[in-house]
Amino acid sequence: MAVGRTAKTGENCPESGVWKVAGTPSTTAPIAKGNRMPPYAGKAVTWTLIQLA
Q1: Using omega within 30 degrees of 0 as the cis cutoff, is the peptide bond preceding 25 cis?
Q2: For the chain, which residues make up each domain, given as ranges?
């Protein structure tokens, strides 16, 4: 796994690290491997891994 990997809301997180929402407005969140990728602002979004934990 590497920085730049993406995962969508509802998928299991493939790698522990800091994830960022694609688009605007954006946010970052620490998400652990195996946890479900959360929605953001009530919507399904695509998360991009920006930093490994």
Answers
A1: yes
A2: 6-52
